[in-house]
Amino acid sequence: MAKRIESRKTPMPKQEPFERVRNFDEVALGYTPEQAKEEASRCLGCKKPHCVNGCPVNIDIPGFVQCVVSDDFSAGIKKLKERNALPAVCGRVCPQEEQCEKFCVLGKKHEPVAIGRLERFLADWEAASGAIEKPAMASPNGKKIAVVGSGPAGITVASDMALLGYSVTIFEALHEAGGVLTYGIPEFRLPKAIVRREVEYVTSLGVTLHLDHIVGKTRTVDRILEEYDAMFIAAGAGLPWFMEVPGENLNGVYSANEYLTRCNLMKGFRFPAWDTPLKRAARVAVFGGGNVAMDSARTALRLGADEVHIVYRRSRSEMPARLEELENAEEEGVTFDYLTLPVRLLGNDQGWLTEIECLKMELGEPDESGRRRPVPIKGSEFRMSADAVVCAIGNSPNPLIPMSTPGLTVGKKGNIVADEETGRTSRERVWAGGDVVTGAATVISAMGAGRKAAQSIHQTLSG
User: Fold this and answer.
1) CB environment 375-414: b (16+ within 10 A), e (fewer)
2) How many other C-beta atoms are found inside a 10 Å radius of the C-beta of residue 275?
């Protein structure tokens, strides 16, 4: 008799909305072993698993899922780590619905297998067991690799090169490792203890980590290349965009980068126990519709705002945020002002923000992104009160490295130009990948770029 397949994913337990808006603890609580096995048993075990092709680092998804079914969690995490140095992170923040789960055959009739939740389960099970196993490592080959940035792409390159026998040093600009995982994603979505755990695993492979080291300022790329055989630049995309509307210089206006960095990296939510002041605004407006906008709005609620609005120029169906994060924000009480465009910020005599002038929009024909273009409705101007604004409309790479590195080709948006398949740049012995090349993208995409670059660097230096 054919196996009966549950049509829906095994639900992930999580904090209730009324409870979680009062704390910064992780919202989703993870599967128990029984729930994980129940979910894994939904996998059809396809002979041609399309889910693997949907993963930028080609994890053997059926392999680790079957290990969960078989109750062999140790073999499952080992299988995962063959291709992924950050399973606990990816299991929490990767957009699986647009990658591996999008190609799950089960998803044609039912909900796809919850691949990300199973990945998270195995990583957390390993951490709880205290038996973290290292893979086999090649003997030292005497060659040195410099990695700029300790985010997902940098961590992946460092891990892969260390396993191949290289001496690897990571140069990180901030005082804590992890890049955007640490400064950009809130504690309630990705606890920092988990990021530290993943970074510690990579350093346990022999990778050296230099913090507070700004490449392009503390030392240039050329100076570092005097000591190293090759370099991989994974400096991320840390230069925020603004709306470029009047009034953005008012007090109370933040970029999402500043707002989230103050809260996540510098623990502003624990002020005054920590020394980072962060305005406790009563009415907050967040501009944008992506995951960063959701993170900013949900952070504002937890900081005590009475009212938080997401102001977005298109409708709900065009929002780029993950559906899961959008639903979490809705459950927690964020108000969504769709088809609304801020055009001016107004303040009082002391220079503090007090109001936002907006236009109502309607949707026209699709633009180059494939989404319907928002068109202003004439005469629809209105004002809404606010004492803080968080601008979460995107980022570009910081220009410091390109400006201080002669011969490094840079694209129109300030991104370093690198070969898509190898990560090679216009400079000899310099590779690049992740957000500094593509602009802000996903964790697993950055890891995929890091993996390709590691293979290319190894081929070059060992050829």
Assistant:
1) eeeeeeeeebebbbbbbbbbbbbbebbbebbeebebeeeb
2) 10
Contact call for residues 368 and 208 (beta carbons, < 8 A): no
Amino acid present at 38: E
Task: Give 1's pLDDT tier (boundaries 50, 70, 90).
Answer: low
Number of neighbouring beta carbons within 10 Å of residue 108: 7
pLDDT digits (tens, 9 = 90+) for 136-152: 889 999 999 999 999 99
Dihedral angle of Cα 314, 320, 192, 212, to the nearest 10 degrees = -90
pLDDT tens figures, 201-227: 899 999 999 999 999 999 999 999 999
Take residue 276 and report the two structure tokens written for it: 């980072």
- Two tokens, residue 53: 């092709």
Give 117: exposed, middle or buried? Use CB within 10 Å, 0-12, 13-18, 19+.
buried
Q: Which residue has the tokens 């190898």?
A: 422
Kindly state the average pLDDT of the residues 355-382: 91
Which of left, alpha, beta for 172 (phi over 0: left; psi -120 to 50: alpha)?
beta
Quote the pTM value: 0.90
Residues 6+ apart with CB under 8 A from 134: 204, 205
Please say whether the beta carbons of 308 and 284 come within 8 A: yes
Own/partner contacts of 193-202, CB < 8 Å, gap of 24 or more, are: 194/88, 194/89, 194/92, 194/127, 195/89, 197/88, 197/127, 198/85, 198/86, 198/88, 198/89, 198/155, 199/150, 199/155, 201/85, 201/132, 202/85, 202/155, 202/158, 202/159, 202/162
